[in-house]
Specification:
By secondary structure, the chain is mainly α. The chain has one domain. The chain is 66% helix and 7% strand. The protein contains seven helices and three strands. A three-stranded parallel beta sheet has the order 1-2-3. α1 packs across α3. The longest helix has 14 residues. The chain is globular, with a radius of gyration of 15 Å.
Length: 122
């Protein structure tokens, strides 16, 4: 299994460098690939802050990436839930991950963040 980094996934999503996008696609055909949670968080940040992609489009795009047969996303149930929360709220993605860990894995989250606490208490 090979780990895909943020840059590789961004080239694949954005297709702003067709050669690199094709290389990522080729890699996906050759081998099973892993996207760590940290990479997902960085992709969300870059798409939203650098490319001004709307939250719901970011969530949908990454959910579609998760559905590619040769891609595994670490903590996938947490990440997919976090993407849903991200699309529906104004929370930062890392806070959405914390909600995912709480709701999908049963972790309790200690926080002073009122917006996060409110969502965790639902």
């Amino acid at each position: 299994m090979v780990i895909l980094d943020t840059n590789a996934i961004l080239r694949y999503i954005l297709r702003d460098n067709l050669t690199m996008a094709a290389e990522v696609k080729h890699q996906l055909l050759l081998e099973n690939c892993l996207i760590p949670v940290e990479v997902v968080a960085e992709i969300v940040y870059v798409l939203a802050k650098v490319y001004s992609v709307e939250r719901d489009v970011v969530a949908k795009t990454l959910t579609n990436i998760a559905n590619i047969s040769n891609i595994t996303i670490a903590q996938e149930n947490v990440v997919l839930y976090a993407l849903q929360v991200y699309a529906a709220t104004t929370l930062d993605f890392v806070d959405c991950l914390l909600v995912g860990y709480s709701k999908k894995e049963g972790y309790s989250i200690f926080t002073f963040d009122k917006k996060l606490r409110k969502l965790l208490d639902k």
